[in-house]
Automatic annotation (TrEMBL), chains A, B:
UniProt keyword Cell membrane present: no
Stated name of the protein: NAD(P)-binding domain-containing protein
Pfam name, any one: F420_oxidored
InterPro entries (UniProt xref): NAD(P)-bd_dom_sf, P5C_Rdtase_cat_N, STEAP_metalloreductase
Domain Pyrroline-5-carboxylate reductase catalytic N-terminal per the UniProt entry, residue ranges: 3-107
Keywords: Oxidoreductase
Record-linked Gene3D superfamilies: NAD(P)-binding Rossmann-like Domain
Species annotation: Nocardioides baculatus
SUPFAM superfamilies: NAD(P)-binding Rossmann-fold domains (SSF51735)
Amino acid sequence: MNIAVLGTGMVGQTIAGGLVRLGHSVVVGTRDPEATLARTETDGMGNPPFARWHAAHDGIALTTYADAAAGADLLVLAGNGGAALAMLTAAGEDNLAGKVLVDISNPLDFSAGFPPTLFVKDDDSLGEQIQAAFPRTRVVKSLNTLTAALMVDPGLLDEATTVFVSGDDAAAKATVTEILTGFGHQDVIDLGGIETARGTEMLLPLWLRTMGALGTGMFNIKVVR
Amino acid sequence: MNIAVLGTGMVGQTIAGGLVRLGHSVVVGTRDPEATLARTETDGMGNPPFARWHAAHDGIALTTYADAAAGADLLVLAGNGGAALAMLTAAGEDNLAGKVLVDISNPLDFSAGFPPTLFVKDDDSLGEQIQAAFPRTRVVKSLNTLTAALMVDPGLLDEATTVFVSGDDAAAKATVTEILTGFGHQDVIDLGGIETARGTEMLLPLWLRTMGALGTGMFNIKVVR
């Protein structure tokens, strides 16, 4: 499949690399490709600049959000939740129409420091806001409940764990589930419509505090039943 | 230990029964014992009236919140989250002073129907509100992340799962962890201070939607790491 990953941070890099390993043709979208490649500083989390990762992955083109979206069959929104709607607007509603968009972002608000709060929650969700803003796009919320390395390689844990899908389009969820299975996820729970993204987005506060208690983000939940 | 369970609903009954099986001396507290015993109708969830359960558990006395609290070494708040502060006020601040209070309630707001939202979240929690209102009480938030039957008997699932404790008093958390271990919980994660109750309370929206997807509440999460 031709897949566009929107977002050049650590999550975008990890997802893009994982999709290439599954045999997909992957393009990474960014606001300004030249500016992204010119950056030499590490990000706020200490990750190396995109250019260094990109040099080691020369099969993956870097282009604008709009060009990436125009050529893609499926998109992954791997940006900062606060920038999600602006990134998709830049990608262009027509370029997104009819396509599956996997929203792996979280509505994190760091304005009051760490741990962040959620800028939308409980009676709405970022997944729903994206679906409402781009009604012709087939939004599937998934993978926002675990750290990037485990999104694409859950076998790094000794035991199979759980991921979730939320969305209004059953065929889109089936497509996403196939990708998840390709990554190695053995337990994918379909929560229902996109409004069930409220559930997975609201896991983040517990995820953050569990990371604090364990001293690592290399964990995931398994729904035992 | 002398334990008071505040709340006569299905959760209170299950917790009281579980604590008796561990060898504790248990009293159940309610607003008006005579009225509680006089009720003959099932509750909103179809559970039989308290009197029927009580007749089968005659070793467990029913008394007022205040009397239950006065005689207890440790209390379990097993009521409706919306009634939590009123129940504790009725129990009496002096009767609660210095004691461990296990808060297993959730701040559920059913006013807009099902699934409920949370009436406090993200920048505050019910656990914190209780600790702030009763500063001399040693509040430990726990067990609010799973269904009552599994709180006291996690072995009903084929696999060991995870429960959490949040609280400002390390000795109180150790006491509660001992009870949890007695129930059969093999993985108790100490999240930190009472403010980490924001995390476990905000799991509820995902818990409710997972219950919807699975068609059962007989599940629990395991933190795989």
